[in-house]
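Hi W.,

Here's what went into the run:
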Amino acid sequence: MEEEVAALRSGRQARRGLRLRNVILFLAVIGPGIITANVDNDAGGITTYSLAGAQFGSTLLWTLVPITIALIVVQEMAARMGAVTGKGLADLIRENFGVKLTFYLMISLLIANYGNTVSEFAGVAASLELFGVSKFISVPLAAAAIWALVVRGTYRSVERIFLIACVFYFVYPISAFLAKPAWHEVLRDTIVPSKIRFDAGYVGMLIGLVGTTIAPWMQFYLQSSVVEKGIRKDRYWISRWDVIVGCVVTDIVAFFIIVACAVTLFTHGVAITDAASAARSLEPLAGRYASELFALGLLNASLFAAAILPLSTVYYVCEAFGWEAGVDKKWSEAKAFYGIYTAMIALGAAVVLLPRFPLIQTMFVSQVANGIALPPVLIFMLLLVNKKSLMGDQTNSPFFNLVAWVTTVVMVALTLLLVANGFGFQLGAHVPTAG
Amino acid sequence: MASETSGSRDLTPGPGGVFLYFSDLLDRSIVDSDGHSIGKLADLSIRLGEPYPAIQQVFIRPTGQSEILLIASGNQVRSWTADPVVLSARLSELRPGRRQDETQILLREALLDKQVVDVSGAKVERVNDLSLIVLPEGKMVLAHIDVGTRGLVRRMGWERAIDATVRAIDPKARYLKSEQLIGWKYVVPTVADRAGLRLALSQKSILRLHPADLAEILEDLPAASRQPLFEALEVSTAARVLSEVEDPRIQEELLTEQSDPEKAADVLETMAPDAAADVLSELPSEDAENLLARMQPEDARTVSSLMGHQEDTAGSLMTTEVITFPGTITVAEAFRRLREVAGNVEFLYQFYVVDEKRRLAGLVNMRRLFLGKDTDRLVDVMAPWTISVRPEDSPSEVAEVIEKYNLAAVPVVDADRVLLGMITVDDILTEVFPLAWKKKLQL
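Here's what came out:
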């Protein structure tokens, strides 16, 4: 009996130790902010940063500083709203702005996120083509696997694998260092804006960069995650750090992708026309295995985002309209939920299978669409976060309002500029500038 | 929307009244008894706690203003159905102001587009529209909330277009008749602030729901509305609800954010020890220790010993709440002792006979007990029992045993056949059923 008690006690201690470790892991590693940031570097993200480096060298690096500040400000607002109100963003928009505005916003987000889903499947196709797998095999298989993973409820167990595989992003800093860029130039271009242009190519790339980094869906996703994780006002400071770390990491990765591509592709005048050319940015590190390494990273990023993005979209659309949602519901109970989810995955994958479908270009254009859809979401967020009746004493500080409004105005101005240029940006074409 | 001449729409013949949708009334012009236009209808208020609450006040946004500045009382309205709405008072008789009385809630501010609990369907719904009835004597009452697609379409202003399209395709389409209206008496608003919910809970109808339904509602509610609902429950209901909540994070939140930690401890004491141990082992150890410290020492000991078992083993599934009797007592004595414990024990349909070292000897179920004579000793009526599981067995092994021998519960014994606890069939069912992924996208 005594022995048993001792055994019980040690078992209990072992479990407590394990739990403590879980808690630490949970707080430090996979907080909502960090997951959101990692999903942010999806197929569209990697492609857009690669194109930015390949087409414009290091001249666009300066944008990363203001983008990071704006990203932190916007994400922090979403996390704070989640912690203070205990409600998702779609929920708040519906409750405060009524059906009509909510409907049009949801429709535009549904379209933008459908575009993103297409780009994730394009990422799957592009990465596996580097291994010689036809997209007619890889894409349907990936779509079916993701659909089943989520609907059968096994996604959570795979999420960690996706997250761990994100260490792939470390290859970009290494590759960038090995390629020995002119660091003084890189640093100068990061701090001092130079060679600013107003043509469609440049403006389109700017919108793409902001759109891929501060994607509209992320704000909904982050806010819901904060609510679901049960983070309240008093524990909110942890979340704030989670958000800041996540944002900074995202943009450091972006920085090194751009630098790596600037050194390896831009200086040699190589245009990114397909995934194989984008993979050359990893040659300083991986040599002839560059394309395999790139393919694995892109595949992981694409699958990770393809699992999260359509699901979070359908959750907040259902949240806004009051439809039953959740994979624990039966099909007959949650028709809208399963219908929209299945349609997003099936149609997203089907489009990629069209003959001669431009994979790289799609991944980029979907990020431009994100950028165009961003201002309305930011405006709603700003109106909500400054509402005393919702946020009490947790409304925005003047600095936050300034940064967020400037971001909104700049995005609107850039979009107008792009429209004025007739959307004539050249996709994937190398624009010879300083090179 | 204010362009419709009558504005009223017959749904089903009401009790001599006329149906109106709140969305049709909103922003409708209002004229006073002299026929002067004074502004637009911005909101209406009702009292909570009545099955058909009459409209108490009309909130008016004067022309050219963006805020509510005038309030008319409900009985100052001469005609609700007219467009513009006609008051029976002059502009000068109206009360300036914008805040409502504390005992009232505003329909637009606190109900429209918000989530409510539908007690009749035990679900959380979103309010797309409200239906009002103008009674023959001219009073208007709130009758239903509209949670259906038609309500959404009407709010978008597309009702006519969509109706016409659907009718053109299929004149008998279900959509044309499918109003999803829920009677106001079945609705518990969760909105506005916590005070709003507390007020609504005075209706009590929600508190009569089955604990499993209540648990599901709690999981579907926005986080801010969960705690007030949970705290309104009595300890015994709260205990059953808490064990039915599937999401461990919500369980944790409900327990640790209880405003009264003593009540949280009471809830845990009332739960079956295995369920309490499950919940506590999900909490951060500091919170768990705090709660254990507030519990009765005896209950706390039982629960914490159960927490020591490895997860996903028979030991972590079992309850120690097992009735055991020595074989030497009589049937009459057993009946007497059963009556004593009946109030506190969940599983009362069978008990085990053990020897002086608590080793498992036999099983007595109700049939054997009833068929025995009062003077029979338990050793004579019991079924000698050997079927059992060990604490380290896996849930699927336990399930196999229960299935193979068609048991309602299986005893858990150690190597010396000392009875440690038992696992009931409902505890094993929840464990081995393929657990669907939880409601929300969880991180």
